[in-house]
Amino acid sequence: MTPETPLLQVRDLRVAFGAKEVVHGVSFEIRAGEKFALVGESGSGKTVSALSLLRLTGEAKISGQALLDGRDLLQLSERELRGVRGSSVAMIFQEPMSALNPLMAVGAQVAEVLMLKQGLSKAQSARAAIELFAATGIPEPERRAGSFPHQLSGGQRQRAMIAMALASRPKLLLADEPTTALDVSLRGQILELLADLQRQSGMAMLLITHDLLMVRRFADRVAVMEQGHLVEHGETARIFGAPEHAYTRRLIASTPRRDVVEEAVAAGAPVAALAESLRVSYPVPLPGVRGWFRKGEFVAVKGASFRLCAGRTLGVVGESGSGKSTLAQALLGLLPSTGGLQVAGQHWQQPAQHNSAHNRQLRQRVQVVFQDPFSSLSPRLTVQEIVGEGLRVHSPGLTEAERRARVLAMLTEVGLTEAQFPGLLARYPHEFSGGQRQRLAVARALILEPGVLVLDEPTSALDVTIQQQVLQLLQRLQKERGLAYLLITHDMAVVRAMAHEVLVMKDGEVLEAGDVRQVLDAPRHPYTRRLVEAALMTQGE
Question: With 0-12 CB in 10 A as exposed, 13-18 as middle and 19+ as buried, what is 480?
Fold first, then answer.
């Protein structure tokens, strides 16, 4: 192979499941030492294309060529492929908690690769695993090598996955959405780490993502896929500077846009939620003999205060473990708290009366939309049962016909109609796209006519174009209904588009609070500045 010959040459790649072809004649090349990004929305075929290179697509029918150093991966026997997987070509999967073995220490999992692929002894592989952990930036690598996946943070788990992928010094690294599940600051750290390791080793990298803005600063070249077709590819600067295909232009333009009522809060405006020195703690076991007699305490939220008025959005930002989700659960009445906490001017009754009539009535005033609609919607219930479930609890006097009418009206308000989806009420969640499922989740929450809606990462599981549609829906509903939103997110672009005020949290404390533009454009606290800088870095700005 000459120096000009690409490391990987993919020619007319086609992948079909049964009679349905999902990848249609895709061709691209990756040079040694190059960072190449394969970009597109969910269902575009980008992940299937990458997995098919190692024939990890189950019973799919694959045709075409995938030449690695001149060898066609698609023609190798299964035994020959086992020699390629993890050695010449390694892969980082999107969700490390699912990809790592929960029953093995992470050090042992990396050592296992070293023993199988490099023939090292048990002692040698254990030492080499610790060195890899150190190289990927895991603190206290010797101690962390003995930890199980659930004992590591999200960033540490992702670094352990990277260490495992790099164990055999591959020529090509496939990275499937390696930062999607991470906080914005961790995204930046992981991207920097991958770039550094790639420069040191000279390996090529195929990055699979739907975040075109993130690859702007990371990739040398970009290929854009839509519905199984490769619609455009070229140098990153050219793609962003002069995109030729309409789909590429739409992806680049799909950044959250601000469309909220900007007027200042008038004196006497109704207060939807109020917290004063809010404190939330958990009991934890104490070490040694002391743990036999009493429990310790972990304080997850330390004296948070905020005032959320009708028609306004309060964004709560911070890394994993900052306390933002705990704050939301306290507002929803799901966790006991001390200090002042009111919803619609009323206090939650604490643990002894957790399911009292008072709390049930108050629960109607505050509802929640979760991060992943596929997980939060029951797969065994129909649309009518999902959206109308709250009415059965809070409006038991309604007849079946009245309930059905209210469900249909609410679905129409969020943009789902019988005309679009015949038999809509009898359908199940799996029959809808991600954005449509999130609209169902919004309908389920709003049918009870709450004053406060807790939005827990409402768009992070969605593609950029669908994210924009859901944000526009939420902005419209807020203006029409005067809803108050508590927005939990690590996406600064979403905060800028949606929020009026923002709280910045770290380790359970509110470090900075105020008007969203003031806080994000001129942050006072060093932690806030780091979050804002990390967001700009991952977007290539």
Answer: exposed
Alpha helix segments (H runs only) across 350-506? 357-363, 373-376, 383-394, 400-413, 434-446, 464-481, 492-498
CA atoms within 13 A on the CB side of 407: 26
What is the DSSP secondary-structure string of 424-464? GGG--GGGS-HHHHHHHHHHHHHTT--SEEEEESTTTTS-H
Instruction: Give CA–CA dist 282/280, Å, rounded.
Output: 7
Distances in Å between the Cα of 22 and the Cα atoms of 58, 66, 432, 447 are: 14, 17, 18, 38
Q: Which residue has the tokens 């049930």?
A: 360
pTM metric for this prediction: 0.78
> Left (φ > 0), alpha (ψ -120 to 50) or beta: where does 288 sit?
left
A 10 A CB-CB count for 465 gives 15
Environment class of residue 11 by beta-carbon count within 10 Å: exposed (0-12), middle (13-18) or buried (19+)?
middle
Set out the domains of the chain in order of their start, with CATH numbers.
1-88+170-253 (3.40.50.300), 100-169 (no CATH), 259-335+453-541 (3.40.50.300), 368-449 (3.40.50.300)
Q: 62 phi and psi, to 5 degrees?
A: -120, 135
Rounded CA separation 224/248 (Å): 7
Averages of pLDDT over runs of 10 residues in the chain (541 residues) are: 76 93 95 92 86 90 94 93 89 81 93 90 93 87 90 81 87 85 70 82 88 80 94 94 92 85 78 95 78 80 95 91 89 91 89 75 92 84 95 92 96 92 92 86 95 90 81 94 93 91 94 95 93 72 53
CA distance 221 to 208: 12
